[in-house]
Amino acid sequence: MKAIDRRTFISSGIKVLATGLLSSLVTVVLPPATGTAGGTASREWPKLWQQREWGFVVDARKCIGCGTCVWACKRENGVPMDREVYRTWVERYVIGPNDQLYIESPQGGASFDRIGGSVPEKSFFVPKLCNQCADPPCVQVCPVGATYRTGDGVVLVDRVRCVGCRYCIQACPYGARFLHPDLMVADKCTWCYHRISKGMLPACVQVCPVGARIFGNLKDKGNPVTPIMARNQVQVLKPDMGTEPRVFYLGLDKVVR
Amino acid sequence: MAGKKTGLSHQPVFRAGVVVVIILTGFALLRMIFVPPTFGVYGYYRASNLDYWATRPVAYAQGTQCDTCHGERAGFVAAGGHAGLDCQSCHGPAASHPDNPGAWQPTINPDREFCARCHGQVEGRPDTVIKQIDLDQHNPGVSCVQCHDPHRPWTMLGTRLGGSKS
To answer: Is A32 on the interface with B (CB under 8 A)?
Structure first.
């Protein structure tokens, strides 16, 4: 075999490296979406987002604890029916005669029974779901960029990138996230992003028989949410956490957390 | 004489440059391999995941879709005590029904327990919002729909109640 001298080695090395550098510069400079490697996002999302900002109001005074929303959510979103995981659930707050507080959510609140024994001082239902926080701790802690907040205000999970590490589940102060038992990725309420993107209502909002859940696009004139927000003192859950929740409650009792 | 070598490839600056080029190339290659397509277009995530969520199949049809074929019944419901209820609140998800109504129909549940999900007396249920009955006391053993038309709860009892309710 012919030995190459140092000069030839270095000069051919330079050529190889220069080619590598040039081609790599191309990939560094160009944004990934226009690169050769992948498809582009099919919609003009920023344009859509300019016209959309979703708003969700829960009227806790109206909830009758029938669980229709809980079932509908599971069916709509492929959450296993027989597992104790819920994208939306309903809690019953029961205040006993000596101010003891019980909070229960059997089967996510899909069917509440009568309470045996003594008559409670006060009891009421509180529907819960992801608050789609404006400053979401779950997004901050994700180590792989698998969760994000869209321009129209919904926090989503990328099931392909999620590694199931559960950091986000721990980070959520509302317990709104869970590990999907079949897919082993983080799952959560999306305000039915597939429905609202098509102009439909989230399933839970549509099936609620008493209008305890109100949903709309805040940038639409005539949406049902804006007048409620204007005329009422709305509350959010755990405001002191600084997460800026985007589900607004009406008539929330002070003991609710 | 051995002397100092003067060729380009012997300049220290040049050698350092080679190292830089190697590092940059390596970085670019790794980035190409590990950063997935459409990552970073709108933020620190794969933009194509938006399409995944936006195009998921729907289980609950739009409420007004039922009206196109069941218009008469929708009007019947809307004029009575169950006005404002979506058909699918009682019949469950029905998005796959309109395409082929003969082949697949949503569920029908005439059980007493079904009505009691909303109307049963349960602690926490506000009677200002919904009328409630004690399941064990209110005409036990008889199906609710024998007396209450589920689509217009008072219609069959109208005369008995003086025709004031529908």
So the answer is: yes
List CB contacts of B163: < 8 A, sequence separation 6 or more: none
CB contact under 8 A, B124 and A125: yes
- What is the Cα Rg of chain B in Å? 35
Residues of chain A neighbouring B45 (CB-CB closer than 8 A):
145-148, 158, 161
Residue of B nearest to A145 (CA): B45
Cβ contact, residue pair B18, A13, below 8 Å: yes
CA distances in angstroms from A103 to A95, A115, A121, A205, B117, listed in the order given: 9, 12, 14, 23, 20
Give the gap in angstroms from C-alpha A239 to the nearest C-alpha of chain B. Answer: 25
* A69 vs B88: CA distance, rounded Å: 11
List chain B pLDDT tens, one digit each, 166 residues: 556 677 887 888 998 999 999 999 999 999 989 899 999 999 999 999 999 999 999 999 999 999 999 999 999 999 999 999 999 999 999 999 999 999 999 999 999 999 999 999 999 999 999 999 999 999 999 999 999 999 999 888 764 444 455 5
What's the confidence (pLDDT) of residue A16?
A: 79
Nearest chain B CA: its distance from A30 CA (Å) = 11
- Does A45-83+129-257 carry CATH code 3.30.70.20? yes
Please give, rounded to a whole number of angstroms, the shortest distance from the CA of B159 to a CA of chain A: 27
In a mutational test of the B interface, the residue from A34, A48, A68, A152 whose CB has the highest number of chain B CBs within 10 Å is A68
Instruction: Please identify among residues 223-242 of chain A the ones whose CB lies closer than 8 Å to any CB of chain B.
Output: none
Alpha-carbon span A18 to A85, nearest angstrom? 55
Q: What element of type H or E holds A128?
A: strand A122-129
Q: Where are the alpha helices (DSSP H) in A131-202?
A: 137-141, 167-171, 193-196
Contact B36 A161 (CB under 8 A): yes
B-chain CB neighbours of A64 within 8 Å are 118, 125-126, 129-130
Confidence of residue A11 (pLDDT cuts 50, 70, 90): confident
Separation in Å, CA B76 to CA B71, B111, B144, B151: 9, 21, 18, 7
pLDDT of residue A17: 81
What pLDDT digit, counting tens, does each position of A166-197 carry? 999 999 999 999 999 999 999 999 999 999 99
ipTM of the complex, rounded to two decimals: 0.84
